[in-house]
Structures are given as C-alpha cells and as structure tokens.
Amino acid sequence: MLMGNMEQVRDALQIGQIVDYLPVSGPVAVPMPKCWYIRRTAPNREFRVMKRCEQLGLSAYLPTLTSRREIHRTKAGYEWIERRNAVGPLITGAILVPDFEVDNPAWKAVDGLFGVLRFGEFVPTLTPKLMADIRRIEAIARTPKSKRQHYFEVGQLVRVISGPFKDFSARVERLDTGGRIMVGIEIFSRITPAILEEGEIEAV
User: What's the farthest any 2 CA atoms get from each other in the chain?
Assistant: First the structure.
C-alpha cells in the first residue's frame, strides 16, 4: 500500500517543480551509539537540563533512583514526620550523551550545562555494556524494597558483617516489608532480636 502511494506521488511530480517539506510524525530512527560521554551540569540542575534537551530535540539520558525521605514538621507545638518518595539522579551533577550527539552545536543553548568530563587529555566514555549495567542498577533502585528479590529466608543461619554485632552469628526470624530483616543474635547464651539490612549480613 505504501509503495503504491509513493509511485503515485512520483508520477505526479515533475522535474523542476517546487515542493515543500512534509512534517515528520512519530518516532525518528537514530543511530545506535557506540559509546556515551559524561557532560557536567550545575548542582541540582540535572532535571532542568534534561527538560531543555527534550525541548531542543537533543538526545541525552539521566538515570534516576527513588528514595524514601523523612520530613520533620512542626505546627502549633505538635511535631510529626512525613515520609515521601523522592526521585533524584543516580549520578549527581552529570548527564549521559551518546557519541553522535556530543558535538551538536545546540548544546550551547542549554543553561546549566558544562563541557564533557575530562581528566587532563583523557576523556572517559561508557561502553554499551556499562550502560546496560547502569540501566539495570536504575531498575533495581526504582523497585520498592518490599518487592525486591530477597536473598535470605526465614530460619537461615547468617553472619553479621558490619555494625556493633559484627562477626556474630544470627538466624533470620522475619523479613520486613521495608526490606529490613529481623534476626536473632546469640549473645551470652541469650537470643537478642535486631533489625538489619541485607548488606549487613551474609549467609553462613
């Protein structure tokens, strides 16, 4: 059907005829980047820079993560804590730019954006494999702790590797919905309950 329409348009046109451009609708194919460059941004300006890039049609990528923040509020002598989910950049003060876009002169119109990250004459770049790892880390960071894969089971024997109970043996008693783990630590022949993070213990 598309070939037939193209043949009709070609037959209707004549050599020397003045034509106009047609607006492009839908996604436009872009080349696959061979590497990604790191462009520096002003502090706390990453999202504004990305919004401006979208307005100018520039290709850029800002990996983000979702964190839980506690805000202490006081009113009329009462104090309470509000817990909110906040989205922030995974790499602060930088955005990632594909190689085919790094020399685009339109970058000069983006406020709060500096040059490519350099260490003397060396310009670090990210390979597609590293970009895949960053996207994997971003996917994990966006997943709530209650829905992440748990690496420990109830009743499993573990060892504490950090904190005041370092090198003590413990047994997993409960998995918290917030991603925390309640364990029973044997201290002086008594079981002491403690709440730890997954990074604070290892399987025995």
Answer: 96
CA 62 to chain centroid, in Å, comes to 7
- Tens-digit pLDDT profile for the chain (204 aa)? 444 445 554 555 555 555 444 444 455 556 678 899 999 999 889 999 999 998 988 889 998 877 767 777 787 777 777 777 778 888 889 999 998 888 888 888 888 888 899 898 899 999 888 888 888 888 776 665 555 556 778 888 888 888 888 888 888 888 776 667 888 888 877 888 888 877 788 887
Burial class (CB in 10 A: 0-12, 13-18, 19+), 110: buried
DSSP-assigned letters across all residues of 180-202: -EEEEEEETTEEEEEEE-GGGEE
Domains of the chain, CATH where assigned: 32-143 (3.30.70), 157-203 (2.30.30.30)
Is the C-alpha dihedral spanning 149, 155, 160, 164 positive or negative? positive
Instruction: Give Cα 158 distance to the centre of its chain.
Output: 31
Integer angstrom CA distances of residue 190 from 46, 53, 164, 187: 51, 60, 17, 5
- Predicted TM-score of the model (pTM): 0.54
Q: Helix (H, G, I), strand (E, B), or coil: what is residue 17?
A: coil
Instruction: Give the phi and the psi of residue 79 in degrees, each rounded to 5.
Output: -125, 135
- Please state, in angstroms and rounded to a whole number, the distance separating the CA atoms of residues 143 and 129: 22
